[in-house]
Amino acid sequence: MTATDECTCGCGGHDERLAPAPLHNPPGRTALDYRVGQYGSFLAALLDRLASPAYPALAGLTVRTPDDPAIGLLDAAAVLGDLLTFHSERIADEAYVRTANEHRSLVLLGRLVGHRPRPGVAAATHLAYTLERDPRAETLPVVIPRGARAHSVPASADEESLTFETSRDLSARWDFNELTVRRRRPSLVTPDDLERRSELFVEGTANSLQVGDQLLFVFGEQAGGVRKLLPVAGVRVDRDEDVTAISLPASAPPSLRELVDEVRLWVAEPLAPGEPGDEPPTPEVPNPRPVSRMIEDFEDQVLAPLRVALDGVKTPEGLAAVLAEPVARLGEAQVLAGPWEDVAAWFEQLQAVLEELARRALELAPAQSAEGSAGEGLRATAAPSGLVAQFPAPLKGDSRAAAFQALAAVLPALRAQPPTLPTGTGAQLPGTDTARLLRALNPSLGSLYPAWRKAAAPGSAQLLRALLAMRITAAPFGSTAPLKPVQDDKGRVIRSADWPLTGAVLTGMRVVYDTAGKVPVRAEFQYVEGNSSDQRAVTLPLAQQVNFGLGPGHVDLSSGSGQEPA
User: Theoretical Cys-Cys bridge with 234: which of 206, 247, 501, 544, CB 3.0 to 4.6 Å?
Assistant: First the structure.
C-alpha cells in the first residue's frame, strides 16, 4: 500500500505502528497539553488493532458498521478514554500557578511557600468634604476621624444605598473648598532649555508684556547664578486657562553647508576603531563605533556611498533625498542587531540624528507649488515627501521594509530599562553616623556641618529661580551732566572734556605740539592700574606705522598730514 492509497477497512487511515506525537508545553502557556488522545484517535487505534495480524484472535471480527456489538463496545471505550484524558488534563492544570483555575488550588500551592491569601477587600471610592466657615473664629484645621461614614445616594429604586468609611484621619480646612484642580505642572527650566524652547507659559493674564520687552532669566540659588536677557518675540493671552504664552526669539537656522558638515561628522570613517565602550563621545567623534562585523558591512554598503553622495548635494531637498535610504537601512539594521545591545544602540542613535538633520533640511527648503517643477528639482522634491514622519516610504524592491520599519518604531520602548528605585540609605548625608564619627575623631571639623549644608552637589543643573520683566528704561546716572571745563594757567576755560571715571584703571593719551601750537612733536601714552603704571612716548612725525603694547592692550600709531584723506 502506498502513501496515496486509501484504506477501506473503516480505520480512517490511522496506523497503529506510529507512536503518538510527543506532548510539548513551552513556557508561558495558560493551559497544558496533557491528553494522550481523544475520542477519534482512541476509536481509530482500536479499529486498527482489529485488522492487525499481531492479534489473530480478533481476525473473526470483520464487521465495521456502527450497529455491530463489537464496534459499539469499542465506541463506548473510546468515549470513556476521552472523558478520562479530559479530566486528567484539567487536574494537571491545577498543579501549576499559571494554569490553575480553582481558588482552592491556588491556596494549596501558596501554602507550599508559606503564602496565605489576604481577606477580600471592599469597594473603595473617593470622597470630597465641604466644610462650613465659622465666622466667630479664624481658620482652624479640623480632623475628620478615621471611620467617618458616608452613604451613597441611589440613582433609581432598583439600587441600594452603600455605606463607606474613611480609612485614615483627614486634616481639612474650610478654605480648602476654594482649591481648584491642578491642570498643569510647573516646568523646571534650565539655561539650555531656553535654546530649545520657542514658547514659555507664565501664570496670569495681567502681566502687561509687549513685543520687544526685555526678560531677565535668573538661574541658580546662589547670587552668582547664570543670567540671560532675552527679548519678547510674541505674546498670546489665554484667559480660559489663565496663562500668558511668551514667544522667545528663535535662533538662526543652520545653513545647508552646516547641515552637510554635520552629516559628514556623524558618518565619518573612524581612524582606529577600539573596543566597545573604550572611546567616549567627543566633539570630533560624537558616536564612537563598537567593534562589529555588522557595522563594518553597513559602512561598506551604506555609509561609504553616502559620503560620496554628499559631495553632489546642492539643495536642502537633495540632502533630504540622499538621507532617505540610509535612514531606512538603519531601521532594518537596528532590528537585526537586537541581540547585541551596544550595536543596536549605535544604529538607533545614528538613525535619530540623520532623521533630525533631514527634517531640518526640509525646513530650509522653499515652499513648492502644487504642480512642482520640472527636471532635477522635481526629482529632488518627490523622494523626501514623507521624511518628516520618520521616513515611512519602503525601500525599492524590498517588500519587508515596511514591516522592518514598523518593528523599529517600537524597539526603543521595548529596549528601555525600567527605572530602578534608589538603593541608598542616606549613609553619607549630613547628620548621619558617618559624619558624626568624623567630627568626633577630629574636633577641628566642627564647621563641617555648616559648610556641608551650603555646599551644592557637583554638576547639579541650575534651575530658573526668577523671571523679571525689564519694563523701565532709563539713561545712566550722570549722562545729562555738562562736560568738564578745562582751564589754562590763567583760569580761563579753553575747552571741555569728559569727566574722568573713578576706578583703579586709567588709560590716557596726550599729544604735545610745538611752541607755535601747530605741529605735533610728541605723543604720550599712559596706563595705570593699581600701584603699577605703563608709559610710552613716541616722537612725531612718524616715517612708518609704530606698534607697541600698552598694559593688557595694543596700540597701532601712524601719522599723516592734514591734506591726506581720512
Answer: 247
